[in-house]
Amino acid sequence: MSISTIRRQVKNVAYNFSDAQVKVREATSNDPWGPSTALMSEIADLTHNPMSFTEIMSMLWKRLNDHGKNWRHVYKSLVLLDYLIKCGSEKVAQQCRENIYSIETLKDFQYIEDNRDQGMNVREKAKQMVSLLYDEERLKNERTKFMMTRKKFMCGSGISSDGSIRHMRKSDIGAAFESELEDARPASAGEEEMQLQIALVLSREENEKEEELRKKDDIGLQMALNESRREIERMNSMDAAGQNTVPSSTLSQ
Fold it and tell me: With CB atoms 3.0 to 4.6 Å apart as the test, which of 7, 47, 103, 169 could cross-link to 88 if both were Cys?
């Protein structure tokens, strides 16, 4: 378990985040790998719940406002939003249109890390999303296509409409796997180049950090616990100070 994962889990408890918020934080973390389709699918289903929808979108807009070293928060939030627009509640696209400026500004996102333009990934994804949001007909077609693919995959994976698991034949598994591979293929040369660059960056970072993280897990856990403890003590101190404040009207009596 990485240090960042430990810190995130401690914060989830300390700030009492809901299940929906925890899933969004996990999907848009700074970990050097993208959100899984399974996790994004769970979040997409939650967008149909009014309370969860509000929590999900609020967390996503907060993540999109990150910058600098947290560029992965921004990029992964765009990836997740793109998925939710196509597979989640229609309210997701509606709210994105209402806040289109927040996405359009990301077309100018800049961040250089180790002489690499990490902002390029964010800029490219933002452009794609803005273009899709402005084209209602294409968005409608994308949603239809996405829903059909998802339904076909669920059937091929042995999951029925009521969520139960049926017996799977090898041919079913093969068809589902091929379908998933087809969806993962880049749609253009630009997207392929972007995916290649991301893969190279993540591979390099993973190789560099794997040994270090393995040795520092225990230290990271202690640091995370201490940080959480200080945060809770600071919040308790602020609450106590507020309760001990005597109104001026009371003193004058």
Answer: 47
